[in-house]
Every structure is written in structure tokens, then in C-alpha cells.
Design a protein that fits this description.
The protein is an alpha+beta fold. It has helices at about 10-25, 25-35, 40-45, 55-60, 85-95, 100-125, 155-165, 170-180, 190-195, 200-205, 260-270, 300-315, and strands spanning about 5-10, 75-80, 135-140, 145-150, 205-215, 220-225, 230-235, 245-250, 280, 285, 320-325, 330. The two termini are about 15 Å apart.
């Protein structure tokens, strides 16, 4: 029987060899590699010297959240989404998708990728700013908002338009076509299989704001859309941070539960507990960074293994076997005959 194997290797020699290969590539090739990196890759770095970029402040149990202040915007411009993006947004917004909390998993995964890219820039000397790398969330029930912010690479105006105005996913057109052909309006299986990245924010939000500042420029920009045909992009005077991206989701009335701290914490611990950066919720650390394979088997439960399997495999289908060594955790997924 053909089985899929999911490996998590922590041998330092293999890590160094892999990164040497990356560092030896051109800048364009390397950034292309990091654009496709998955959150699980970040776990490779935890046990080694590459962790130095995470500051001591980010390791604290709690950090006082900043008070949100209005920002001024200039040079606003209204732009159209690309045709395939419009179609995807319409499907996502109108779908009967039941597992709405997937949006947070998708956005936190994007945050992790942005932080990995920033860590790489520091490691290669492209950016000397080695300040704290972390993800912060603020919930506000009164305003019916959830704010997700990272201190990653951030985006320029052009990158905001390119990354948020078009679908960068390879094979995206055929994917959108497949979504549109699902009968009965239920898109759970398709969205769950492929993920929808940033656009998942429109599963729960009627308006989404993105404020981003790249370390490569002095300017910060605001991207705003209600998920229909257009988006607005503006220059802002002071985003309130030196580098990174902040996403403000104005939740729909039927999704107000995502402005509750307790609900959001449960989602983080279910989907994103193993992200290799501190996740702060309303100023308090809520994720577990320590690698599961580095912990004693006596301290782990079957639920721990199951949650980690679901995290790396993006599936609720149970694994068939597992092997746990001090430097490696191996899962095997069921073959088609087992289902």
C-alpha cells in the first residue's frame, strides 16, 4: 500500500546543509523559496541557533497591548480586483462554510511566513534590524473587531496590490472553477483542502483593513475592502509600528464570537499552537513554542500527538501510525483503502 510520510527532522547537520543551499541561491530564488514555506518549517529553527532573532521581550508571558488610535490617510486610490479574485471573494463571502474559524489559522500562517522572511533577512545581513519577532492579536467585543499583527517583513504599496489584489496561488484559476461548481453552496471540503489564505478574512468580516510597512521603505500603506469588486489603497502618516503588517477585521454580526478572547484562544491552541513565534492575545502569551518531539514522551498525551498531526497535515483524518524519537517525529497517514 502506498503511504504518505510526514517527516519532521531536527538534525542540525541537515538544517545547516539545507540553509546553506538556500543561502547559495540568488536573492530572487531564495525569496521565492520562502514564499512557499509552510509554518511547520519554522519549527526546524527552534532548537538551533537561528532562534536568536526572538527578543527577550517576546518571550515574556504578557505584554501590554497598545491602544488603537486613528490614522491619517493620503493619496487614496480605488482599484479593481482581478477577475479570478472577484470570483473567489464572491464564493467565499456567499458560501455556507461551517468551519469559519479556519480564517484565523490561515492568517496566522501568513504571519508566520512574514516573520520567517524577516528572520532570513537578518541572518543574511540584508536587514540589520533584529528586533522582536512575534504575532499579536487584540479582540474588541464592543467594536466587533479582531486585530492580527506581525512584526515580519511588511509590504510596500506595490506588494499590497499584487499580494492582496490577485490570487498568487499556482493553479488558482482551475481551483476557483472547481469551487464554483460545488453543488448546493457547500464549499467546506474544497476550502478545507486548499485554504484561501488572506481572503479567508471575508468569511467572517464585512470590511477588512490592512496596514503594512516594509523595512525597505519609509512609507506605510492602508489597504481597505469590503470583499466586493474594489479595494482602496492609501498612504498613511504613522501606522504606529516600525515594520510589519496589521489586519483589522470588522466582523459580521453573525461572526461576533471571534471578538471574544476565549473563543479566539481556543482556535489558536487548536490550529496554531506550534507556530515558532510568540503569539500574544490581548497582551498575554497563548501558544506553546517548544517542539513536541523535543519533549519527553511521558509528558505527552494522545491528544497532543493528534493536535500536532492536524496542524502539520491540515486534515482532521486521523494518522495511522507514529514513531517518536528525540530528534524526529514520524507520522504515516491512512491509505485510501483505510478510509
Amino acid at each position: 500500500l502506498t503511504k504518505q510520510y510526514h517527516y519532521i527532522m531536527l538534525r542540525t547537520a541537515k538544517i545547516v546543509k539545507s540553509f546553506s543551499r538556500v543561502f547559495g541561491a540568488s536573492r530572487k530564488e531564495t525569496l521565492k523559496h520562502f514564499n512557499s514555506i509552510k509554518p511547520v518549517h519554522s519549527a526546524f529553527l527552534t532548537q538551533n541557533k537561528f532562534k536568536f532573532c526572538t527578543s527577550q521581550n517576546a518571550q515574556n508571558e504578557s505584554v501590554e497591548p497598545k491602544v488603537e488610535t486613528p490614522i491619517e490617510k493620503f493619496d487614496s486610490e480605488s482599484l479593481e480586483f482581478k477577475a479570478e479574485t472577484k470570483k473567489l471573494l464572491h464564493i467565499v463571502a456567499k458560501s455556507l462554510y461551517t468551519d469559519k474559524d479556519v480564517f484565523l489559522r490561515e492568517l496566522l500562517s501568513n504571519c508566520s511566513d512574514a516573520l520567517e522572511k524577516q528572520r532570513y533577512l537578518v541572518l543574511t545581513g540584508s536587514d540589520p534590524n533584529a528586533d522582536e519577532l512575534r504575532i499579536s492579536l487584540i479582540t474588541d467585543e464592543a467594536k466587533r473587531q479582531i486585530i492580527i499583527q506581525d512584526t515580519g517583513v511588511g509590504m510596500t504599496r506595490e506588494e499590497l496590490i499584487q499580494n492582496l489584489g490577485t490570487i498568487a496561488h499556482s493553479g488558482s484559476k482551475s481551483w476557483v472553477e472547481k469551487l464554483s461548481k460545488v453543488e448546493g453552496g457547500s464549499t467546506d471540503s474544497i476550502i478545507g483542502q486548499f485554504g484561501v489564505g488572506f481572503y479567508s478574512s471575508f468569511i467572517v468580516g464585512d470590511t477588512v483593513e490592512v496596514i503594512s510597512k516594509s523595512a525597505a521603505t519609509q512609507e506605510a500603506y492602508l489597504w481597505v475592502s469590503d470583499g466586493t469588486g474594489k479595494f482602496e489603497i492609501s498612504r498613511v502618516s504613522d501606522p504606529g509600528f516600525a515594520r510589519g503588517t496589521k489586519i483589522i477585521i470588522h466582523l459580521r454580526p453573525d461572526c461576533a464570537q471571534f471578538a471574544k478572547r476565549s473563543d479566539v484562544q481556543k482556535i489558536i491552541q487548536r490550529y496554531s499552537n506550534f507556530i515558532n513565534f510568540p503569539i500574544l492575545l490581548n497582551g498575554e502569551r497563548v501558544n506553546m513554542i517548544s517542539a513536541i518531539w523535543a519533549r519527553s514522551k511521558a509528558d505527552l498525551t494522545e491528544d497532543d500527538y493528534t493536535k500536532f498531526w492536524e496542524y502539520i497535515s491540515n486534515t482532521k483524518v486521523p494518522y495511522k501510525y507514529k514513531l517518536h524519537y528525540s530528534t524526529c517525529l514520524l507520522y504515516t497517514s491512512p491509505s485510501p483503502r483505510d478510509s
